[in-house]
Amino acid sequence: MKNLILFGPPGSGKGTQSAKVAEKYNLAHISTGDIFRREISNETPLGKKVKDIINKGELVPDELLIDLLRNAIKQNRDVQGYIFDGFPRTIQQASDLDKLMKEFNMAVSKVLVLDVNEEEVVKRLLKRAELEGRSDDNEDVIRNRMGVYRTQTEPLIEYYSEKGLVSTIKGVGTIDDIFEFLCKEID
Ligand code: AMP
Predict the structure, then answer these.
(1) In a 3-state reduction of DSSP, which class is residue 170?
(2) Which of 12, 25, 30, 61 could pair with 8 in a Cys bridge, judged by C-beta atoms 3.0 to 4.6 Å apart?
(3) Which residues line ligand 1 (CB under 6 A)?
(4) Which atom of ligand 1 is nearest to the CA of 88?
(5) Domain limits at 55?
(6) Nearest CA to ligand 1 atom 1
(7) How many structural domains does the chain have?
(8) Quick one: CA torsion of 129, 20, 121, 151, rounded to 10 degrees?
């Protein structure tokens, strides 16, 4: 099994690249952001709980993630592995993921980090706001999401580096260029 984690700041292209990687390697693409957006648009109890948090650019509490992940894995068993996009985002989630992987007799194979500077991602996100109208893509919320990424999620790179799992990829260029860099690391 190939179990990959794709890290990168908001707007680094994680979603786009994860979908392409999932297709090429026959992996289940698990995007917690997409799962939450679906719950919100279906107005489920979970959606109602997380809507304001997401619109502010804060993180959903860790304890709401683990069952969601377990279900996402259970629903996708006929695959060669998983690519996690937007999860884990805190040290607690990383340690929960380790336990979850053990439950399924799996392990994280590699952590890919998309390296893009802040001004570039803010520029991209403002453009995405115009095109897609995502409710958490306005400048204040974007800056907040960047801050949350730096303080809560970036420390995970160290956590996984200590396990020797991290590869950093230049996240600037065309979608195809970046996809090619990623595939080289995965292969
Ligand atoms: P994303 O599409 O990955 O940028 O996620 C959008 C928003 O969903 C984030 O800004 C968070 O509010 C929430 N979210 C997604 N994944 C997680 C996670 N693993 N932990 C906490 N909150 C999350």
Answers:
(1) strand
(2) 12
(3) 10, 32-33, 36, 53-54, 57-60, 65, 86-87, 89, 93, 136, 145
(4) 19
(5) 2-186
(6) 33
(7) 1
(8) 110
Cα→Cα distances 143→41, 77, 150, 181, Å: 24, 37, 11, 28
The packing angle between helices 66-74 and 32-41, to 10°, is 100
Q: For each of the chain's 187 residues, which pLDDT tens digit applies?
A: 999 999 999 989 999 999 999 999 999 999 999 999 999 999 999 999 999 999 999 999 999 999 999 999 999 999 999 999 999 999 999 999 999 999 999 999 999 999 998 888 888 888 888 888 777 888 889 889 999 999 999 999 999 999 999 999 999 999 999 999 999 999 9
Ligand 1 atom closest to the CA of 93, numbered from 1: 19
User: What CATH number has the domain bearing residue 34?
Assistant: 3.40.50.300
Q: Hunting for tokens 């919320």 — which residue is that?
A: 141
